[in-house]
């Protein structure tokens, strides 16, 4: 048994076959995953992918239509069985803080202890300790409307941890805050959560937040869990183009496999042959989508020497944006647009540059496009490109020399 000052071990969370429908819409469409006690899971996905529905189902605010939720082995949701939120030993932090407007900071945080059988002085001690921990000791007597957004979210954080729940649920807690505050509060969430023994499930549509916080990332799309893996694995081997796009892309090219290799695959894109890492098996002639990570790109001097460089695109700078640690460029290379091409120095609009591509960071996925007859040795005409303006995970990380591509 845990004592009031010693947090209980975090919940072991098990979700199997979770389905939730709203009319014709399957907000959750057969979701399975587990989170080990004390682990930090981030559910990442675009708007409408089912993140809130999933976290609300864990909380017991929503009832599943099918499937089960177990918390530390106990059946919390299954069929007609539904453990109410207050019996799940969890706390939730919401995007809009959800503080009681008529209670002071002290009252709001203390409210979370109302179900604990603590004497007044121990409860008070705990509340003050939690407020000190989030840097709000001086504001205990204020009301929520007398606090900034960041301070209100700190109160919500203190309220969530003060009762030492076994599960902490976060529903986009940083989305209403400005960038600088978001980063500081993210660090506080990471440290506070890990100091407590609680298991955490955190939802966001922000990939940089997900990578910074997670032990494990689950990527959701249209109510399905597409990939569940550590951040490094999700970044290095995104299971699908959707996951790759959602976790940082500088540009996309379409082409055809010329020569599959154990390490790198040669892909013809228009009149270029580029090397890339294939995700999943590919055969000569396969149509592929080539996704270029921002870290793949590096501007090199435009070559006029005798040596013909490989794995490069030549193009003109069409946009340059100052990013503090350097500059991100958008480059038009023939019909291709490559964004987030980082360099320590600015290249003015119109300058002709050469972009070196690191094959390790160029990911090739087979597509369903029909093969051309005799493909494998003929150039493909597929050169469609999309530009994705998503702030890349690794903007600024392109300073490592690209590998030799010969
Ligand atoms: N109460 C509801 N009634 C009808 N449809 C709903 C309801 N709640 C959610 N949905 C639908 O279920 C799907 C998943 O919604 P959900 O809010 O879980 O997604 P989300 O990934 O959290 O999105 P966001 O990031 O925009 O909050 C969406 O298509 C949404 O329109």
UniProtKB/TrEMBL annotation:
InterPro entries reported in the protein's UniProt record: AAA+_ATPase (IPR003593), ABC_SmlMolc_Importer (IPR050093), ABC_transporter-like_ATP-bd (IPR003439), ABC_transporter-like_CS (IPR017871), Mo/tungstate-bd_C_term_dom (IPR008995), P-loop_NTPase (IPR027417), Transp-assoc_OB_typ2 (IPR013611)
Keyword annotations for this protein, in alphabetical order, are: ATP-binding, Nucleotide-binding, Transport
Pfam (any one): ABC_tran
Boundaries of every ABC transporter domain copy: 13-247
Q: What is this protein called?
A: ABC transporter ATP-binding protein
Q: Where is the composition biased (Polar residues)?
A: 377-387
State the organism named in the record: Jatrophihabitans lederbergiae
Region annotation (Disordered) maps to 366-406
Would you say which domain of life the source belongs to? Bacteria
Q: Entry's PANTHER family?
A: SPERMIDINE/PUTRESCINE IMPORT ATP-BINDING PROTEIN POTA, SPERMIDINE_PUTRESCINE IMPORT ATP-BINDING PROTEIN POTA
Taxonomic lineage is: Bacteria, Bacillati, Actinomycetota, Actinomycetes, Jatrophihabitantales
For this protein, what is any one GO molecular function term? ATP binding
UniProt cross-references to Gene3D superfamilies, sorted A to Z: P-loop containing nucleotide triphosphate hydrolases
């Amino acid at each position: 048994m845990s004592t009031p000052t010693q947090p209980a071990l975090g919940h072991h969370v098990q979700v199997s076959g979770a389905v939730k429908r709203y009319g014709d819409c399957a907000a959750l469409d057969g979701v399975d995953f587990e989170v080990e006690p004390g682990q930090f899971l981030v559910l990442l996905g675009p708007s409408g992918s089912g993140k809130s529905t999933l976290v609300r189902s864990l909380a017991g605010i929503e009832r599943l239509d099918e499937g089960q939720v177990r918390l530390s082995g106990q059946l919390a949701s299954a069929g007609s069985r539904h453990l109410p939120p207050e019996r799940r030993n969890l706390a939730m932090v919401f995007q809009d803080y959800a503080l009681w407007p008529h209670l002071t900071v002290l009252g709001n945080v203390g409210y979370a202890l109302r179900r604990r059988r603590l004497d007044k002085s121990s409860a008070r001690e705990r509340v003050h300790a939690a407020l000190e921990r989030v840097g709000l000791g001086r504001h205990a007597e204020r009301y929520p409307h007398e606090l900034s957004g960041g301070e209100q979210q700190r109160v919500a954080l203190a309220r969530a941890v003060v009762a030492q729940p076994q599960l902490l649920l976060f529903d986009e807690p940083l989305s209403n805050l400005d960038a600088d505050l978001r980063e500081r509060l993210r660090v506080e969430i990471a440290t506070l959560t890990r100091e407590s023994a609680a298991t955490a499930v955190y939802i966001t549509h922000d990939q940089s937040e997900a990578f910074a916080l997670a032990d494990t990332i689950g990527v959701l799309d249209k109510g399905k869990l597409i990939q569940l893996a550590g951040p490094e694995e999700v970044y290095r081997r995104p299971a699908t183009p959707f996951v790759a796009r959602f976790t940082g892309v500088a540009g996309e090219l379409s082409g055809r496999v010329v020569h599959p290799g154990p390490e790198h695959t040669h892909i013809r894109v228009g009149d270029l042959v580029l090397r890339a890492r294939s995700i999943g098996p590919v055969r000569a002639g396969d149509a592929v989508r080539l996704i270029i990570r921002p870290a793949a790109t590096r501007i090199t001097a435009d070559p006029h020497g005798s040596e013909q460089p490989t794995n490069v695109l030549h193009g003109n700078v069409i946009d340059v944006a100052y990013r503090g640690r350097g500059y991100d460029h958008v480059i038009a290379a023939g019909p291709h647009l490559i964004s987030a091409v980082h360099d320590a120095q600015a290249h003015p609009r119109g300058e002709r540059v050469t972009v070196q591509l690191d094959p390790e960071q160029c990911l090739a996925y087979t597509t369903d496009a029909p093969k051309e007859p005799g493909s494998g040795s003929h150039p493909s005409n597929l050169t469609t490109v999309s530009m994705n303006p998503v702030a890349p995970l690794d903007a600024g990380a392109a300073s490592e020399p690209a590998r030799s591509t010969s």
